[in-house]
Amino acid sequence: MIPHSKIILDEEDIAVVARVLRSGHLAQGDYVLSLEEKAASFIEADHAAAVSSGTAALHLSLLALGIGEGSEVIIPSYVCTALMNAVQYVRATPVLADIDPDTYNIDVDCIKHAITDRTRAIIVPHMFGLPADIEPIISLGIPVIEDCAQSIGARLGGKYAGSFGTLSIFSFYATKMLGAGEGGMVASNDPRLIETIRDLRDYDEKETYVVRYNYKMTDIMAALCESRIKKLPSFIHRRKEIAKTYDVGLSDLKLGIPLVPERREHVYYRYNIELENPIRFMDEMHKRDIHCRRPVFKPIHRYLQLPGFPNTDDAWEKAVSIPIYPALKQEEAYFIINTITSIL
């Protein structure tokens, strides 16, 4: 079976975790501080705070911006439910926007139509490793949280995704770009916001009381993340190689493959194709030992039974994510191409 996602840990990854275990200090400590410095440097942000997950990063980002009951936060519908969960955690109202059908990213015009006098933030995921059209969104003058859970290392006009917004969040979950098991990060050029997040992630030994959280990252996870972040450029290079192989090998099939606009550097967290009958296609691929998936399990507006998101509906009904990860061998990529060609 060729899985949809796969992670391979090398001896360096294992050794650095063993080093932490032997040190006897497993909780948040020096390794977390080191990871924060290296992650901020990598994406060219001034400050970063490590947390326990990408969802925790979203939750604390909203709190740091003072968002709560009565506030509205604009998010795309074509995304996992973590964004809506975080908005609900702070008792704000999620307001959904449709996507650009060419890129699967949130549509700027739809954002403009969704803005009200209660809009306090916009969460902009860079979907599947392709940067969103972030600059016009920033120009709206509303705080922007960049969701880089799928796009660490991607660039727009030479700048890293995560270096544009008021805050940016990252996920280090097992199937994400770093593939480090779990963990998350918040980055910003505003030191006050990051200090607020550092205060809120840990509830103990505080001079004053407010509701705080147990969102700390362990030194075990930080050490593994730091080991993996050094390899990220090579991971991205391999993902681009596989994507190029797919581009060439599938070109005659005239599949609906999302565009990569000028000035945007795609890191190919996912490689998506569009088909008229994706369920049947995925079943046929599985019979041939290749695991494919919907890139988004279910759009948020479908959970809420809301109408009016035609581009999201179209993407959800047609898009299929085929295997792409650094450990995928070239002969496996060719086998996937030949199998898709045979089925279609």
Commentary on this structure:
The chain is α/β, with parallel strands linked by helices. The chain has two domains: 11-228, 3-Layer(aba) Sandwich (Aspartate Aminotransferase, domain 2); 231-343, Aspartate Aminotransferase, domain 1. 40% of the residues lie in helices and 15% in strands. The chain is built from twelve helices and twelve strands. It has helices at residues 11-23, 30-43, 54-64, 82-89, 108-114, 134-138, 191-200, 219-249, 278-287, 300-303, 310-318, 330-343; strands spanning 47-51, 72-76, 93-97, 119-125, 144-147, 155-156, 159-160, 167-171, 184-188, 264-265, 271-274, 319-322. The strands form three sheets. A seven-stranded mixed beta sheet has the order 1-9-8-5-4-2-3, sandwiched between helices. Helix 1 packs antiparallel against helix 8 (219-249), helix 3 crosses helix 7 (191-200) and helix 8 packs across helix 12. The radius of gyration is 20 Å and the shape is globular.
